[in-house]
Amino acid sequence: MAIESNVKCALVTGGSRGIGKAVVLEFAKAGIHVMINYFGDEKEAMDVKNQAETYGVQAEIFHADVSDPVQVQNLFAAIDNLFGRLDILVNNAGIAQTVTVREMTDEQWDRMIKIHMYGTFYTSREAARRMWDQKSGRIINVTSDLAGQGAAELAHYAAAKGGITAFTKSLARELAPYVLVNAIAPGGTFTDIRSSLEETHDKNDSRQLLNRLAFPQEIARSILFLTSDDGSIYTGQVLGANGGSVMNG
Asked: Can 118 be counted among the known catalytic residues?
């Protein structure tokens, strides 16, 4: 896939593991410099940075909770200082937990919504300001097939992902024609989140027409496609990388 020649820097939130890590490495292979946002283990983030740099790109790490607007502002200030511009934003940071609505606390609901929806809003707001001024850019939001089908014990997660889907379509209209905004909705994928939701994902496996879960690299390559010249006609779309669990159109 051809990458636009003026692309210099991408930000991947939640970039130290799972889908985010795979995205960082696919970008690095394509010659894109990467800011790796992480919230957990610094060693994991450094390992991803070191792997990315073997492809000859600049890779940096930055610890930030995307649900905190001040930390997000500091993250983007670092991008301005280190890279001078931002061409791609991948909103991947997220958490998951199983709990029934009957037992869900206010804190559990709030944390889920803040990490996913507030985090996507805060980073997209900063990116949109920069991309609008430079009249170019790509924003890719990671949502979920559960946004379309729902899931017992994951109402807060599905609601947050559904909100991101609607936000994606609205932002695409707002930033056209200069900035392309899309989402990718993975189905079951081999990640840390899957291991924390083992029972739920086992139930969902039977819905996969391909009879298997996705690998993070498969999701990452779909995201790379959306940032490439080949993806230049896509905006306001949700790419269903879900093995057939949800059919769109």
From this structure: no
